[in-house]
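idk why but the lab printer keeps eating my pages so im just putting this in chat instead. protein + coproporphyrinogen III:
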Amino acid sequence: QQSGPLITQFFPPLKNDLILRAARGEKTERVPVWLMRQAGRYLPEYNEFKKEHSAGFFDMVRTPSMACEITLQPLKRFDLDAAIIFSDILVIPQALGMGVDIQEGKGIIFDFLLETPEDLKKLNTVVDVTTELHYVMDAITLTRQQLNGRCPLFGFSGAPWTLMKYMIDGSSSAPLPKARRWLVQYPEASRQLLKLLTTKIINYLVAQVKAGAQILQVFDSSAGELGPTQFNKFALPFLREVAYSVKERLHEEQIDPVPMVVFAKDAHFALEDLAKSGYEVVSIDWTQKPAHARRLLGSQVTVQGNLDPTLLYASKEELKHAVKEMVTKFGTNRYIANLGHGVSKDVDPENVKVFVDAVHIYSEEINAT
Ligand code: CP3
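predcted complex ->
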């Protein structure tokens, strides 16, 4: 597989650019919709594929043909307005030399964790992520071709703070979280690690765009663990640097810019700052009130979100009602419908269909009145 800016011109023309237009603040006939974690364990075809190939999660992530097929699975069932490449935020710690596996029932297992600043020496700081993670770029190029212009393809990365969190605590819910303690006890080493991650993330996201990604999302899923002071010191500046440097690099390399989405989960206090952090879209979790979030974010960014993922367990009627309320409250401009976090593994795919269709139906209804 060849990848690089040249290949971009050979991709099939895009038939559905709703999400790109919404991200740029242009009017759309209906509200675009996709779901975080739209591919994965709640889909029987995902579980069958995994079993049939006796593949582990990262085997599938590392095999472009498999990653491509799984990325496309939800699009065969639902009328989605975006695809997201099947991969994981933990590929960056892997590229830095931290072995990670994900096993059914056991969750995330790291070979080793960062205990003290001494352990930073264990990292392969000079790694070139564009070669080390070339399989992601290949999967993106292949998927963009296979999508045949149906809808845009998301590339993504974990945010610096969230990756640091996983590299120190091993999961998002460690019994004795040490990552936050690092920020207090070892601020300099923390900054060094965050800076290292930022550099790798920028290179990685630029490579994804060159390979064919048409929109990017940065997942700061552990943002809410930080208070406002720590967030402003250790998360926001690095999120900003990611956005501005990716844009600058694309510009320097004469590649068209792509919209960027930031998802700083549970960071209520940060909305005003996030609206000015260089991202076109701010994705919010379900604990935020639509009108309040809009007010804080202002009119210069698009909002993405934020249905409570547990509503996918509700009755179809209740779910439709909640979607209608959500779309009504956010309005149909500068809005991308999504969940407030990822789909859980045991939801009924039929309810995902209800969610997606309801967004389209209600937003067209609102636009027609
Ligand atoms: O959204 C998509 O469909 C694209 C694929 C995607 C995955 N992970 C696939 C996946 C994306 C965008 C991610 C991002 C990701 N990974 C985040 C940020 C978003 C969020 O949910 O907050 C985080 C924190 C991770 C880390 C991670 N990877 C976790 C916490 C888990 C679950 C581990 C467990 O307890 O089983 C994973 C594994 C994972 N990533 C799966 C999938 C489909 C399940 C793997 C399997 O067992 O088949």
